[in-house]
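A.,

Following up on our hallway conversation. Structure tokens first:
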């Protein structure tokens, strides 16, 4: 198998493990609060869901981009 195909296959496997292959449909089970930096275990949430920090009580709306990256914006 040519080297460039092996590299692609490894990257594809890595994306599947990280959830990147799901894009905006990716789900999360925890988040780090952008306000107080506390780690918050959470029920499964994804794009458009609202989450509440258990430490500082700030509420955020989750946005997941096409690459499966999570961003939290204060509501």
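Then the amino acids I'd put at each of the 75 positions:
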């Amino acid at each position: 198998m040519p080297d460039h195909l092996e590299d692609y296959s490894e990257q594809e496997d890595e994306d599947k493990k990280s959830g990147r292959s799901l894009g905006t449909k990716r789900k999360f089970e925890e988040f780090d609060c952008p306000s107080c930096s506390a780690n918050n275990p959470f029920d499964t949430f994804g794009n458009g869901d609202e989450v509440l920090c258990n430490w500082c009580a700030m509420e955020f709306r989750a946005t997941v981009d096409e690459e499966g990256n999570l961003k939290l914006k204060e509501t």
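Residues 18 and 39 are 19 Å apart (CA to CA). Curious whether your intuition agrees with the design.

B.
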